Amino acid sequence: MRSSRVLFFLSLFIISLLLNGGVSAQPVRFIPLPPTNIHCTAIQDCCYLQWEMPESNPGDPIPVGIKIFKDNELLDSIEPSTTFYYDMTVNCGLYEYWLTTVYLVSPGNFVESDTSNHVIVNIQFSVAPLPHTENWESCNFSYNHWYLSSPSPELLQITTNPGSTNCYCRFGSTISEDAADVSLTNFYMLTFLPMCSELVVSFDLKCRQTTASQDTFRLSVIDRNEVAFFFSDIVSSTDTSWKHYTFAYPIIDQICERLRWTSVGAIGHLTAEWQLDNIFYFEHLYPATNLQVYQENNGNRLTWSATEYQSFNSQRKFHIIRYLNGDSIMSLYTTDTTLYDSISQPWMYCYTVTTESNAWIYITPSDPTPLICADYTRIINHDRNIFMLSPNPVNNNLCIRYNGHKAELLLCDLTGQLVLKKSIPSSPTGEYRVNLPATLPDGLYLVRLIQPNNDQITRKLIISR
Question: Which helix (H) or strand (E) is 384 found in, with range?
Answer without folding.
Answer: none
